[in-house]
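Before a computer can learn anything about folding, someone has to put a protein's shape into writing. The three-dimensional part falls to structure tokens, numbers that each stand for a local backbone shape. The protein below has been through that process, and both of its lines are reproduced in full.
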Amino acid sequence: MFQTTNPATGQPGEALPIDDEAAIEAKLAAADKAWRKWRLTPADERAALLARIADAFEHERERLARIAVCEMGKTYKSALAEVDKCAAGLRHYAEHGPAMLEPVTIATADGTPARALWRPMGPVLAIMPWNFPYWQVVRFLAPTLLGGNVGLLKHASITQGCAQAIVEMVDKAGAPAGLFQNLAVKSQAVEAILADDRIVAATLTGSEGAGAKVAEATGRLLKKVVLELGGSDPFIVMPSADLDEAAKVAAKARIQNAGQSCICAKRMIIHTDVYDAFLERFEAAMRAVTIGDPMDDVDMGPLSSFEQRDTVVDQVAKAQAEGARLLFGAEQPPMPGAYLTPGILVDVPRDAPTAQEELFGPVAMLFRAADIDDAIALANDVPFGLGSSVWTQDAGERERFERDIAAGMIAVNRMLASIPEAPFGGIKRSGHGRELGPWGLHEFLNLTAVLG
């Protein structure tokens, strides 16, 4: 059984069954059967299903939000926002997706008629994390179903209630049997499922270690894979920036989802001319963060689990042993649950091992940059390349950042966020491939050339 735990109280939640071999086989067979018919379903009918799934999310938004709060501790208001984002993402693909599937006419030198067609591949396995238990799944689900594929979900162990709820939303929308199913399995079962001939591709959002294992397995099997892995995103502030706004957004970006987001700002890289002024504002904003019962109107609830909280505590202690100074915070408050107060690490040695790691919790690392070249060098001096946020009013500096920051995404004078219209993904050890927009839709479609 999967045993969930409410991270706000430490009390056990619902116990949910694990699929045995017979259940896995039944779901794989159902997925294969569903795909053979779904691939022939017109795009406008697929889009209509997405719109109905969006309706189901909106109708059940409060119940869905409460499940997420109880399973992984995000605040109720942020859980509601996540459910609403899912509905918006589904509606985006329902409205604009069919046009993304239109054949592309190709101009040829000798006038030969030529077209490129987008065609579905088959059942796709999605291995998804707990931190955004609905949105991470929906940004796979919507383009997968629209493209004529079917989806199988392997969700995180601690968010199996969320996984079941998503399946319910799809079923309530009238989806054919087998079109989208949750494989209630643990990580050890993934490799055998990937090896099944009925699975044609996979996508994973998660840790480097999990991504490496899935990449190795899919590479050996010659199957397509998209990986969205960790990040240690830089938040760069230059002298021309609006410091009040930058500091306010930096705090929000660091404590979003209790710091448990791949694209949270994690390394604050501040130009030396405004370092002290920024730190004063940033510290005030971080100290003002309210913590408590995630069902209340607070800024931050607990971390997703006691294990996750302890991992961050250990990383902070390691950083201090390496020479960093804990300015304040990173403490376990006297309350039940996996809580950790926001904190700031300063004077982190650039060559410290912790400076190369992802801190998946509400603790920021601050670095001082001498100039723009130093800021870019420091931003790129990690094995990750997911997102970044740069703050400047100088057009030349903006051009430099856009050209030289080694990341899949760059936000300028704003907090980085995923939106349905834009490609989402990273480079280096942050993964490869893209989600969202037409790019995410096309990742799991076969491109067929037709000549004549």
Observations:
- The mean pLDDT is 97.
- The chain has two domains: 2-229+430-451, 233-412.
- The two ends are 56 Å apart (CA to CA).
- The chain is about 40% helix and 20% strand.
